[in-house]
Design goal:
47% helix; 4-stranded mixed β-sheet; 26 helices; alpha+beta
Length: 721
Amino acid sequence: MNRLILILQCVLLSASCAAEAPMEDLSFPVEEVMEESFSRFYIPVEYSSNPGMEELSLPVVTDDVINLLPVLFLAGQFDPPEQIAENGFVVLPMQRPTDNPVRAFERLEDRDQPVFVSSGIPLHMLHIFFDQILQQVETDDLSPDLLLICRELYHSNLRRNNELNAAFFAVPLMFLDEEFSPHSSIAEQVNREIELMKAHGGFDHSPVFGYKEDYSQYVPRGHYTASSELENYFMAMMYMGRITFLLTGGDPYGPDEQFLVSEETAEEMTQAALLIVSDLNTIESDGAPLKYKWQRIYEITAFFAGFADDLSASQYQTAAESVSGESFNSELLYQQDFYQDFKLFVADNFAGPAIYSGTGASVVMPDASGEFDPAALQTLLSKTTGFRFFGQRYTPDSEMLGKFVFPNITANPQGQQRFMPSGLDVAASFRCEAALLIIEEDGTTSFGRYEDTLENMQEMVDDYSEEDWHATLYMCWLHSLRLLSASRGEGYPSFMQTDAWDRCTLSTFLASWAMLRHDTILYAKQSYTAMAGCCPNMDEPVPSAGFVEPVPEVYAELRATLQMARTALEYYDISDDNLSNRFNNAESLLETLQSIAERELAGEMLTVRDSDFLKGFAGYLDDTIAWGATTTEGLETTLIADVHTDQNSSSVLEVASGNLDNCVVIYRRADGVVEAAIGPVLSYYQFNQPMNDRLTDEAWREILSTEPPARPDWTSNYIFK
């Protein structure tokens, strides 16, 4: 069945529903449905940072290091690699690969050598907390309420003969309720939609909505492969997060035209969306309007992942009441004047989406001279504006990825277009010096408008207030990475002042960012590229217990983030004794890391308590991230997420954290002794993958165990292979 027939069916279906449906009173009471920011839960943790460590001249005289050979022996090396003398540190892939940080530290215990605790380890701990708590909330709290909401709205729209809305809610019910079967009037459309979602083959016309949808997005991945309940929740929420009730339409329409659907179709979709909003206000559940259950789901998911990038119930509610008054009936809803006034009000008062997410498989056409207009991106965003029931969330990194590709970025001097972004674009937007140097070296900045776009993105990041940085857990995580990426100067260990360490830190930044995208794969709105037309002696100094990467501001921010999460979960009555104990352990571990880092920077020796903590770090870490709990998501660092889709090549950008590496660092202690320490660090990968084969964590781990991809070229100056 071709697209035109499908769209005409949708139009006729909605029109017949309007004709048959009895007149009903609609309700759009204007009120604030949620706070604009969750920063009210955030309280900063104070820290001190007074860099005063005695520096070590580079290159290192390896004979001056009291324990270098024993430490290298733990990493399977018998001779000092060239990088360790030049940079004061080296990263060594483990001979026995592991993605479990507890096991990695256990291998170093009882060896009487200092352990190195990288900032990547507590960042990984944040991922585990974030992911496991989200799983628990989705399974125990959100999924049951989502089922209730969909069931109520399905029956309401079936009673009023609005088959578009009935079909829209029938699709998630097919996953959330194993006993559900759609009404015969919509069964064919719904079953075909389900088939496309399960086949996840890429772009195809939606049997329910008519325009093209990217069905490759419906591959359960991230932690959603952990149980059938989470898989079904993923499918239901992904559909309600991606499908748009388009606001505007016109002629001509199609993927390569100004509009995606006809004006009649857009009007019917807008009417359907407003009926949904009215139902949220008028249907009661547990003695209160259904909107409070919708609001709770939205707020909790927003706390983790951010606010919707598309128009939602609150905006449509405000616009409807403002245009026609608080009380009016469905007869008024179907008048042309109302629709036109409603569109104008929305355009004048609300911003459209900032991220193009593939709606309609839009195509950007060249002008008569064969050139592409960078302004076409805004046109593309405008024609995808509309209502999403649980719209996917705006995140600044998704906006960055979408802005660093065609058509906003124009061709380079060789005439090549940039269709796929890179994680480096995100890091460069955060003013990470290593990323800036790499994109300059590899020619990325030669693409037209790249440098201007980079400057705009950097200014956007610079302009974020403290409230912005702590508006959600997602933003807190990004803020931690921003703090980590700062360059380190005088008073820090010599190895931390090298370009090589900046690149190692960049790898940690991007690996942790990949984990963040992994954990929010369902909610964070993915950007798209539009289709383009066309052993020591006892008399010698004794090695210490270890060394903590001295970035106290990062540990303080992670402490504050966990405290924010604890407060918010208690506010939403999502907490228990087990969770509270895990928070206590995590905050205690971070407090100790912060305390050690502060003393190291100030040039002080470790205390006995510090030494005991580092000697038993594996146990402390284990108690924190796997404290007697049964979890569906393990401790693995091997995690993957697709973060951008290029319609031109039908491929996605995959970013991933791999197995842990060993890192050996050399530093001068407060007593003047030069020693080495060893500990696990995160690894980072990125590569393109066919969009109809988006990778799960399980598939990624299989690839790593058989034919792992190459590391980014820019890691070669600090990784010894």
